[in-house]
Design goal:
18% of the residues are buried. It is elongated, with a radius of gyration of 20 Å. The termini are far apart. The chain has 5 helices and no strands. The chain has one domain. By secondary structure, it is mainly α.
Length: 173
């Protein structure tokens, strides 16, 4: 078996693995959107209509807002795959590498969420009313999730583009 069929099999198998991680990542992010950006989804008492908190809660409570963050992140991952496949000469393992990045992100995000909830629960008393639930209780997790998502996207672009800048021939040594 020559080198080319091995690369084709690696790329095809990697695409299948990447599709599975994209599916898992999409639903993890959709769940995180529900947990972090819709704090009043199961409570009868909500902020007044017209307030920023209510508008944000209502937007992310149902489609398209409930799926927008997940679709954006998975879509950016798809773009990084296409760009990386076009720009790299030997990118047969790129889908496997991107799938690994997705998997590592999901593990780290899960650990960060549990740690954040535990630390935040120790610091604040439990909510007394449904209105006490809100973004003042979820902002640390939103911040951590944003940082991790930024790292995921930057890491995927870095991996897709080969991990280094192209050297120019006229640059000084």
């Amino acid at each position: 078996m020559g080198r080319r069929p091995v690369q084709i099999l690696a790329f095809a198998g990697g695409l299948l693995l990447l599709a599975v991680t994209w599916y898992a990542l999409f639903w993890c992010l959709a769940g995180a959107t529900e947990l972090l950006l819709v704090p009043w989804d199961t409570t009868p008492q909500r902020p007044p209509v017209g307030t920023l908190a209510r508008e944000v809660n209502d937007f992310f409570e149902g489609p398209p807002g409930a799926y927008l963050p997940a679709a954006t992140i998975v879509g950016a991952g798809m773009v990084s795959l296409v760009v990386g496949a076009v720009r790299r000469r030997c990118g047969a393992w790129l889908p496997v590498i991107l799938a690994a990045a997705n998997s590592i992100f999901m593990v780290l995000a899960s650990i960060a969420y549990v740690a954040n909830q535990s630390l935040f629960a120790l610091r604040l008393p439990p909510p007394q009313t449904g209105y006490d639930l809100g973004y003042q209780r979820t902002w640390p997790a939103i911040l951590v999730a944003g940082l991790l998502l930024g790292l995921l996207l930057c890491g995927q672009w870095w991996l897709a583009l080969g991990g280094r800048r192209e050297e120019r021939g006229d640059a000084p040594s």
